[in-house]
Amino acid sequence: MLSPWLLGAIGITAGPLIASLVLSLTDYSILGSTEYVGLANYRAVFEDPKFFTSMGVTLTYVCLAVPLQLALALGLALLLEKGIRCLGVYRAGFYLPSLLGASVAIALLWRQVFKSDGLVNAFLSIFGMPGRNWIYDPDTSLLTLVVLQVWTFGSPMIIFFAGLKEIPKNLVEAAIVDGAGYFRRLRSIVLPLLTPMIFFNVVLQTVGAFQSFNQAYIISGGTGGPVDSTLFYTLYVYIVGFVEYRMGYASALAWVLVVFIGALTAVQFIMSRKWVHYGDQ
């Protein structure tokens, strides 16, 4: 008998993957007849200006959000590792945004916070600073989504914190005896021993950032606006598939993203050989 896990893997993961791969070779549109078109959809991807726009927006978002999020997570993990009262309360409080960050409710809340009469402009007005319509200004709309992603730092922070707890105390104590200051110990002992966790978080958060959808959909009203400034790649795939009913082309777009993320992850693994240090090395 097939185990429930295997049934789920075939029915929920492998089945749709194969179906989308087959659909990417057709002009399937839900409403009309389906015709095999070979690689025409894939050729059309690289002649589509919206493809380059959405990929550019997504890459900008990933390059800004992931480093800032991991830097904040590492900084707070180092702070918590120093030992403070009510540590469990702080850990739970910092982790909570990670549970809520991708939800529709938080995206709606974010939209209220950054609109023209929202909380951010009210705060700036206390200091006499002019506000702006952060969401509907193409210069700042993507920035609001970056801030939302950075805010969900709890998950990588917990991983960093667990890694810090595994660092042998005798190494740190020996460095203190030798006169090494905090930043010297951080650079020469803590960060090198923490590189497996840093690498794990980089891969995990990068893949997650490329798949971001809810935030851009809610804040832009499902359009990727203003002026395509929040047109995430996944949002563009949704628009092509479920608004324009070009399912075959949307499947091709999705597979291009899968291949791109797979190649990027492979590059990250290859480069990790030069800077990630494991205990047995």
- The portion of residues forming beta strands comes to under 5%
Q: Report low-confidence residues grouped into runs of 5 or more.
A: none
Structural class: mainly alpha
Helix count, DSSP H or I runs of 4 or more residues: 13
Largest sheet: none
Order of helices and strands: HHHHHHHHHHHHH
- The termini sit apart by 43 Å
Number of strands: 0
Mean pLDDT: 88
Tell me the helix content.
55-70%
Oligomer: single chain
User: So what's the overall shape?
Assistant: globular
- From the alpha-carbon coordinates, what is the Rg to the nearest angstrom? 23 Å
Would you mind describing this structure in some detail?
This protein is mainly α. It is 70% helix and 0% strand. It has helices at 4-23, 40-45, 49-81, 87-100, 104-114, 119-126, 141-151, 154-165, 169-177, 182-210, 214-219, 233-243, 247-272. The longest helix has 33 residues, at 49-81.
Q: Main attributes?
A:
13 helices
Put the structure in a nutshell.
Helix 3 (49-81) runs parallel beside helix 7. Helix content is 70%, strand content 0%. The chain has 13 helices and no strands.
Write the layout of secondary structure elements.
Elements: H1 4-23, H2 40-45, H3 49-81, H4 87-100, H5 104-114, H6 119-126, H7 141-151, H8 154-165, H9 169-177, H10 182-210, H11 214-219, H12 233-243, H13 247-272
